[in-house]
Amino acid sequence: MKLQQYYLACLAHASYLIADDKTKVAAIVDPQRDVDQYLKDAEAGGYQIKYVFLTHFHADFIAGHIELRDRTGAQIYLGARAEAEYEFVHARDGATVEFGDVRLQILETPGHTPEGISILVFDLAKDAQQPQAVLTGDTLFIGDVGRPDLMASIGITAEELAGELYDSLHNKLLTLPDETLVYPAHGAGSMCGKNLSKDTVSTIGTQRKYNYALAPMTKMEFIRLATTDLPEAPDYFGYDAMLNRKERGTLEENLTKELKPLSVDEVVALQSEGAQVVDVREAADYEGAHLRNSLNIGLAGKYATWAGTMLDRTHPIVIVAEHGKEEEAAMRLGRIGLDLIAGYLSGGLGALEKRPELIARTERITAATLAEQLASDAPPAVLDVRTDKERETGVIEGSLHILVNHLRSRLAEVPVDRPVVVHCAGGYRSAIACGVLEQAGRTNMIDLVGGYGAWSATASSCTVGSGSSCAK
Hints:
This protein has helices spanning 36-45, 65-72, 158-171, 204-210, 219-226, 236-243, 251-258, 264-272, 283-288, 303-310, 326-334, 367-374, 388-391, 428-439, 451-461; strands at 2-8, 13-20, 25-29, 48-53, 75-79, 89-91, 96-99, 102-108, 117-123, 133-137, 181-184, 202-203, 261-262, 276-279, 290-291, 295-296, 317-320, 341-345, 359-360, 363-365, 381-384, 400-401, 420-423, 445-448. It is α/β, with parallel strands linked by helices.
């Protein structure tokens, strides 16, 4: 038996290939939408992908079950409580799929969603009685459990699902042997939980000992724990959860239509008609020069998550990228279901060389200069777009706090009568925020280079009597 994990860091998403060398049959669990890596590895191993399992209807990405079905003929398996537009097998509790030395056995583990399942993986050549591993989807993470409040659970309350989650954990997963390997669908950075570990594999015994959500407690105590202090879920989560239920176009089909070059005039015309222009370059490059009223969401960061948060899926998207990065930018939007892409600016920003009237720039400021200005008679305002939890580590005194995803609805709170220095932790989200302010007609925003990290370092380097202004 072969069990291979694929980890997509930008979405903190884990998927799996399980293959048998006797029958040369393989199954894929929770695939990402771009499926070439599974097909490549299956071909290299001589495997035929016959099965594709979704542990639940994912809310944070579009799964690749349709793509694998269309390219390999694989049969789709979903939990027994699932409802979908496409043909699938209802995977009921205790049901098994066997091929060669591999047995996959279903555990219905609702809680994160009603239709959630976990999959026991047996290597029959080693032990037909005890599973080698369990693929837990979003039911059990390393260091955490799945949140029960997402839109994937329409028609049932978070409290009801949290109660089901407690039962799934204690009556199903925690009855497994301590040495059973735990392979979840997400890791640190995912908003499907609140305390996920950076580890991507563990054991039932380790989780029983160290996972805070598995500590001894009553069901009511667990429900309170599981439904409080949850991170705010992006709006696209509900849309993706529904799209994973639907028959839809494949990523390959969409990219064929979307990856078309556009002239400057075509981009400007689309922009005037309501299209969104997303510039995927590094923040420093964007702020040095960019197409007016474009939004910077850099490929180097959590691009898909922030694109899903800040872009409107009902309006066309135009991509501005460095040469050769256009397809990656479109593909990663497709991973979360942003398929309405009009094309990309041919030639990138260089196409604007003879159109200076279309170029805008964003002013930048160092932490040391900001400290001096804050100590002056006419200090700028400071806008902090970090999360509440981040602000617990320290703040710039007197700063205004608005999360970047709330900025459009709270623009009236941002001062217009003086410069506004925007910062996040390192500069990625503050560049997004500066773009939002520009789109609103503001011209007084300045991005803090290096974000709060640079500010904190500047503050710690100050010495009493140095004669320099020190951060507070």
